[in-house]
Amino acid sequence: MIKSYKKVLNSMPKYSGLRVLTEDEIKKLRKVFLQGLTDMTRVCEKYNLTVMLIGGSVLGAVRHQGFIPWDDDLDIAMTRADYNILKRVFEKELGDKYFLVAPNYKGNARNRFPQIFVKDTVFLEVENSDPNSGIKIDLFIIENIPSGYIRRIIKGCWCSALMFMASNAATYQENSNLLKRYMYQTKEGEKYYKRKMKLGRLFSFIEEQKWFNIVEKACQYNKRTNLMGIPTGRGHYFGEIRPRNTFLPISHGMFEGIVVNLPGNPDDYLSNLYGDYKTIPAEDKREQHFIYDIKFSNDNEKSVR
Protein backbone atom coordinates (compact mmCIF):
# COMPACT_ATOMS: atom_id res chain seq x y z
CA MET A 1 0.00 0.00 0.00
CA ILE A 2 1.38 3.40 -0.99
CA LYS A 3 1.66 5.80 1.94
CA SER A 4 -0.02 9.17 1.74
CA TYR A 5 2.14 12.22 1.15
CA LYS A 6 1.54 13.41 4.73
CA LYS A 7 2.55 10.03 6.20
CA VAL A 8 5.74 9.95 4.16
CA LEU A 9 6.67 13.46 5.32
CA ASN A 10 5.98 12.57 8.94
CA SER A 11 8.12 9.43 8.67
CA MET A 12 11.20 11.41 7.64
CA PRO A 13 14.04 12.02 10.14
CA LYS A 14 14.26 15.56 11.50
CA TYR A 15 16.03 17.68 8.90
CA SER A 16 18.68 19.98 10.33
CA GLY A 17 17.48 22.92 8.19
CA LEU A 18 14.07 23.02 9.85
CA ARG A 19 13.01 25.39 12.61
CA VAL A 20 11.92 24.19 16.01
CA LEU A 21 9.69 26.95 17.31
CA THR A 22 10.58 28.42 20.67
CA GLU A 23 7.96 28.64 23.40
CA ASP A 24 7.75 32.39 22.79
CA GLU A 25 7.21 31.88 19.04
CA ILE A 26 4.51 29.29 19.66
CA LYS A 27 2.78 31.68 22.06
CA LYS A 28 2.92 34.51 19.52
CA LEU A 29 1.74 32.26 16.68
CA ARG A 30 -1.27 31.03 18.63
CA LYS A 31 -2.25 34.58 19.56
CA VAL A 32 -2.14 35.49 15.87
CA PHE A 33 -4.44 32.54 15.12
CA LEU A 34 -6.85 33.47 17.89
CA GLN A 35 -6.98 37.05 16.64
CA GLY A 36 -7.71 35.77 13.14
CA LEU A 37 -10.49 33.56 14.46
CA THR A 38 -11.93 36.49 16.43
CA ASP A 39 -11.86 38.74 13.35
CA MET A 40 -13.47 36.08 11.17
CA THR A 41 -16.18 35.42 13.74
CA ARG A 42 -16.96 39.14 14.00
CA VAL A 43 -17.43 39.46 10.24
CA CYS A 44 -19.49 36.27 10.04
CA GLU A 45 -21.81 37.44 12.80
CA LYS A 46 -22.25 40.77 11.00
CA TYR A 47 -23.40 39.02 7.80
CA ASN A 48 -25.23 36.14 9.49
CA LEU A 49 -22.66 33.58 8.34
CA THR A 50 -21.33 30.60 10.29
CA VAL A 51 -17.68 29.73 10.72
CA MET A 52 -16.66 26.71 12.78
CA LEU A 53 -13.49 24.96 13.84
CA ILE A 54 -12.71 21.84 11.83
CA GLY A 55 -10.12 19.05 11.60
CA GLY A 56 -7.39 19.09 14.22
CA SER A 57 -8.77 22.27 15.73
CA VAL A 58 -12.00 20.44 16.66
CA LEU A 59 -9.86 17.69 18.15
CA GLY A 60 -7.99 20.31 20.15
CA ALA A 61 -11.21 21.90 21.40
CA VAL A 62 -12.74 18.59 22.50
CA ARG A 63 -9.66 16.86 23.91
CA HIS A 64 -7.58 19.81 25.15
CA GLN A 65 -10.04 22.74 25.24
CA GLY A 66 -7.54 24.58 23.04
CA PHE A 67 -4.66 23.94 20.67
CA ILE A 68 -3.25 20.43 20.52
CA PRO A 69 -0.05 20.90 22.57
CA TRP A 70 2.30 20.02 19.68
CA ASP A 71 0.23 21.70 16.96
CA ASP A 72 0.93 25.01 15.23
CA ASP A 73 -2.04 25.73 12.96
CA LEU A 74 -5.75 26.55 12.95
CA ASP A 75 -8.41 25.02 10.69
CA ILE A 76 -11.83 26.54 10.14
CA ALA A 77 -14.75 25.73 7.85
CA MET A 78 -17.86 27.25 6.28
CA THR A 79 -20.63 26.02 4.03
CA ARG A 80 -20.33 26.84 0.34
CA ALA A 81 -23.24 29.30 0.51
CA ASP A 82 -21.68 31.24 3.39
CA TYR A 83 -18.24 31.20 1.78
CA ASN A 84 -19.62 32.72 -1.41
CA ILE A 85 -20.86 35.68 0.65
CA LEU A 86 -17.57 35.95 2.54
CA LYS A 87 -15.67 36.29 -0.73
CA ARG A 88 -17.76 39.30 -1.67
CA VAL A 89 -17.13 41.16 1.60
CA PHE A 90 -13.63 39.96 2.47
CA GLU A 91 -11.66 42.91 1.11
CA LYS A 92 -13.99 45.43 2.70
CA GLU A 93 -14.13 43.80 6.14
CA LEU A 94 -10.76 42.06 6.52
CA GLY A 95 -8.52 43.38 3.78
CA ASP A 96 -6.57 45.70 6.08
CA LYS A 97 -5.02 42.79 8.01
CA TYR A 98 -5.47 39.72 5.83
CA PHE A 99 -5.59 38.56 2.25
CA LEU A 100 -7.59 35.65 0.89
CA VAL A 101 -5.80 33.20 -1.39
CA ALA A 102 -8.27 30.79 -2.94
CA PRO A 103 -9.29 28.93 -6.09
CA ASN A 104 -11.40 30.99 -8.48
CA TYR A 105 -10.70 34.15 -6.52
CA LYS A 106 -8.57 36.84 -8.16
CA GLY A 107 -6.46 34.21 -9.87
CA ASN A 108 -4.23 33.54 -6.87
CA ALA A 109 -4.88 29.92 -5.81
CA ARG A 110 -1.99 28.19 -4.02
CA ASN A 111 -3.91 25.18 -2.74
CA ARG A 112 -7.09 23.21 -3.38
CA PHE A 113 -8.81 25.05 -0.52
CA PRO A 114 -8.93 28.74 0.54
CA GLN A 115 -6.30 30.13 2.90
CA ILE A 116 -6.37 33.37 4.89
CA PHE A 117 -2.90 34.91 5.15
CA VAL A 118 -1.87 37.44 7.78
CA LYS A 119 -0.26 40.42 6.08
CA ASP A 120 3.40 41.30 6.72
CA THR A 121 4.29 37.89 8.14
CA VAL A 122 6.49 35.03 6.94
CA PHE A 123 5.79 31.34 7.42
CA LEU A 124 7.82 29.03 5.20
CA GLU A 125 7.48 25.26 5.17
CA VAL A 126 9.28 22.44 3.41
CA GLU A 127 6.31 21.94 1.10
CA ASN A 128 6.00 25.63 0.29
CA SER A 129 9.13 27.76 0.37
CA ASP A 130 7.48 30.69 -1.46
CA PRO A 131 8.98 33.81 0.19
CA ASN A 132 5.56 35.50 -0.09
CA SER A 133 3.94 32.86 2.09
CA GLY A 134 2.87 34.11 5.52
CA ILE A 135 1.12 32.85 8.64
CA LYS A 136 -2.16 31.39 7.46
CA ILE A 137 -5.46 29.89 8.54
CA ASP A 138 -6.79 27.09 6.36
CA LEU A 139 -10.44 27.53 5.40
CA PHE A 140 -12.25 24.38 4.29
CA ILE A 141 -15.56 24.40 2.45
CA ILE A 142 -18.37 22.13 3.59
CA GLU A 143 -20.14 20.92 0.46
CA ASN A 144 -23.39 19.14 -0.25
CA ILE A 145 -22.74 15.52 -1.24
CA PRO A 146 -24.97 13.54 -3.65
CA SER A 147 -27.26 11.17 -1.75
CA GLY A 148 -27.48 8.68 -4.62
CA TYR A 149 -24.77 6.03 -4.34
CA ILE A 150 -23.84 5.82 -8.04
CA ARG A 151 -23.73 9.59 -8.51
CA ARG A 152 -21.70 9.99 -5.30
CA ILE A 153 -19.14 7.38 -6.36
CA ILE A 154 -18.72 8.85 -9.84
CA LYS A 155 -18.38 12.41 -8.56
CA GLY A 156 -16.08 11.38 -5.71
CA CYS A 157 -13.76 9.39 -7.97
CA TRP A 158 -13.60 12.24 -10.48
CA CYS A 159 -12.81 14.83 -7.80
CA SER A 160 -10.21 12.55 -6.19
CA ALA A 161 -8.53 12.03 -9.56
CA LEU A 162 -8.43 15.77 -10.18
CA MET A 163 -6.92 16.42 -6.74
CA PHE A 164 -4.29 13.75 -7.39
CA MET A 165 -3.31 15.35 -10.69
CA ALA A 166 -3.34 18.86 -9.20
CA SER A 167 -1.17 17.85 -6.23
CA ASN A 168 1.50 16.23 -8.38
CA ALA A 169 1.48 19.07 -10.91
CA ALA A 170 1.92 21.59 -8.08
CA THR A 171 4.92 19.72 -6.65
CA TYR A 172 6.55 19.57 -10.07
CA GLN A 173 5.90 23.21 -10.93
CA GLU A 174 7.01 24.54 -7.54
CA ASN A 175 10.18 22.41 -7.76
CA SER A 176 11.23 23.08 -4.15
CA ASN A 177 14.89 22.24 -3.53
CA LEU A 178 14.18 22.24 0.20
CA LEU A 179 11.48 19.59 -0.20
CA LYS A 180 13.82 17.51 -2.38
CA ARG A 181 16.63 17.64 0.22
CA TYR A 182 14.16 16.71 2.94
CA MET A 183 12.71 13.73 1.05
CA TYR A 184 16.11 12.46 -0.06
CA GLN A 185 17.05 11.63 3.54
CA THR A 186 15.71 8.09 3.05
CA LYS A 187 15.35 5.71 0.12
CA GLU A 188 11.60 5.63 0.63
CA GLY A 189 11.40 9.42 0.59
CA GLU A 190 13.61 9.68 -2.49
CA LYS A 191 11.52 7.09 -4.33
CA TYR A 192 8.29 8.82 -3.38
CA TYR A 193 9.59 12.24 -4.43
CA LYS A 194 10.82 10.99 -7.81
CA ARG A 195 7.48 9.32 -8.50
CA LYS A 196 5.64 12.49 -7.55
CA MET A 197 7.83 14.58 -9.85
CA LYS A 198 7.35 12.18 -12.77
CA LEU A 199 3.61 12.29 -12.36
CA GLY A 200 3.73 16.05 -11.92
CA ARG A 201 5.58 16.46 -15.19
CA LEU A 202 2.89 14.38 -16.89
CA PHE A 203 0.13 16.63 -15.55
CA SER A 204 1.95 19.94 -15.89
CA PHE A 205 0.20 20.76 -19.17
CA ILE A 206 -2.11 22.78 -16.92
CA GLU A 207 -0.78 25.45 -14.57
CA GLU A 208 -1.00 24.86 -10.83
CA GLN A 209 -3.53 27.65 -10.20
CA LYS A 210 -5.79 26.41 -12.98
CA TRP A 211 -5.67 22.88 -11.57
CA PHE A 212 -6.91 24.16 -8.19
CA ASN A 213 -9.65 26.18 -9.92
CA ILE A 214 -10.81 23.03 -11.71
CA VAL A 215 -10.78 21.01 -8.47
CA GLU A 216 -12.89 23.55 -6.61
CA LYS A 217 -15.55 23.69 -9.32
CA ALA A 218 -15.71 19.91 -9.55
CA CYS A 219 -16.23 19.50 -5.79
CA GLN A 220 -19.29 21.77 -5.65
CA TYR A 221 -22.81 20.31 -5.57
CA ASN A 222 -25.66 22.80 -5.36
CA LYS A 223 -28.52 20.44 -4.48
CA ARG A 224 -29.30 20.14 -0.76
CA THR A 225 -29.12 16.50 0.38
CA ASN A 226 -28.94 14.54 3.63
CA LEU A 227 -25.14 14.30 3.30
CA MET A 228 -22.35 16.85 3.65
CA GLY A 229 -18.59 16.60 3.47
CA ILE A 230 -15.29 18.39 3.01
CA PRO A 231 -13.98 17.11 -0.34
CA THR A 232 -10.70 19.08 -0.11
CA GLY A 233 -9.97 18.13 3.51
CA ARG A 234 -7.50 15.63 4.92
CA GLY A 235 -9.77 12.71 4.00
CA HIS A 236 -10.24 13.96 0.45
CA TYR A 237 -13.66 13.47 -1.14
CA PHE A 238 -14.82 10.30 0.58
CA GLY A 239 -13.07 10.66 3.93
CA GLU A 240 -15.30 13.30 5.54
CA ILE A 241 -18.77 12.46 4.22
CA ARG A 242 -21.22 12.45 7.11
CA PRO A 243 -24.95 12.95 7.70
CA ARG A 244 -25.89 16.61 7.43
CA ASN A 245 -26.60 16.84 11.17
CA THR A 246 -22.98 15.95 11.92
CA PHE A 247 -22.12 19.43 10.67
CA LEU A 248 -25.32 21.47 11.11
CA PRO A 249 -26.76 22.95 13.18
CA ILE A 250 -23.51 23.81 14.94
CA SER A 251 -22.58 23.01 18.54
CA HIS A 252 -20.29 24.99 20.82
CA GLY A 253 -17.18 24.33 22.86
CA MET A 254 -14.31 26.04 24.63
CA PHE A 255 -11.03 26.83 22.89
CA GLU A 256 -8.28 28.67 24.76
CA GLY A 257 -10.85 30.23 27.07
CA ILE A 258 -13.29 31.43 24.40
CA VAL A 259 -16.56 29.93 23.17
CA VAL A 260 -16.22 28.63 19.61
CA ASN A 261 -18.44 27.00 17.00
CA LEU A 262 -17.96 23.27 16.37
CA PRO A 263 -19.65 20.75 14.07
CA GLY A 264 -23.09 19.74 15.31
CA ASN A 265 -21.92 16.28 16.38
CA PRO A 266 -18.20 16.54 17.22
CA ASP A 267 -18.00 12.92 18.41
CA ASP A 268 -19.24 11.51 15.11
CA TYR A 269 -17.05 13.90 13.13
CA LEU A 270 -13.87 13.10 15.10
CA SER A 271 -14.50 9.36 15.32
CA ASN A 272 -14.87 9.19 11.56
CA LEU A 273 -11.73 11.26 10.94
CA TYR A 274 -9.37 9.95 13.64
CA GLY A 275 -10.86 6.77 15.09
CA ASP A 276 -10.04 6.66 18.81
CA TYR A 277 -9.49 10.40 19.06
CA LYS A 278 -9.64 10.52 22.86
CA THR A 279 -6.36 8.64 23.26
CA ILE A 280 -3.29 10.88 22.95
CA PRO A 281 -0.94 9.35 20.34
CA ALA A 282 2.63 8.35 21.10
CA GLU A 283 5.18 11.07 20.38
CA ASP A 284 6.47 9.39 17.21
CA LYS A 285 2.90 9.13 15.84
CA ARG A 286 2.02 12.80 16.21
CA GLU A 287 1.57 14.83 13.06
CA GLN A 288 3.98 17.68 12.61
CA HIS A 289 4.59 20.61 10.32
CA PHE A 290 7.91 21.29 8.68
CA ILE A 291 8.79 24.91 9.33
CA TYR A 292 11.70 26.56 7.58
CA ASP A 293 11.26 30.16 8.75
CA ILE A 294 8.80 32.35 10.62
CA LYS A 295 8.55 36.11 11.13
CA PHE A 296 5.88 38.22 12.78
CA SER A 297 4.78 41.67 11.70
CA ASN A 298 5.33 44.69 13.95
CA ASP A 299 1.61 44.69 14.76
CA ASN A 300 1.82 41.04 15.79
CA GLU A 301 4.78 41.80 18.03
CA LYS A 302 2.91 44.63 19.74
CA SER A 303 -0.21 42.56 20.26
CA VAL A 304 1.55 39.83 22.22
CA ARG A 305 3.44 42.02 24.68
Characterise this structure.
It is a single chain. The protein has 305 residues and is an alpha+beta fold. The chain has helices spanning 5-11, 23-46, 56-64, 80-94, 149-174, 177-183, 187-203, 208-219, 236-239, 244-247, 266-274, 298-303, and strands spanning 52-53, 75-79, 98-101, 115-118, 122-125, 136-145, 227-229, 242-243, 251-255, 258-262, 291-295. The strands form 3 sheets. Strands 1, 2, 3, 4, 6, 7 and 8 form a 7-stranded mixed beta sheet that branches. A hairpin with a 2-residue loop joins strand 9 and strand 10 (258-262). The longest helix is centred in the middle third of the chain and has 26 residues, at 149-174. The radius of gyration is 19 Å and the shape is globular. It starts with a helix and ends with a helix. Mean pLDDT is 90; it is low at 301-305.
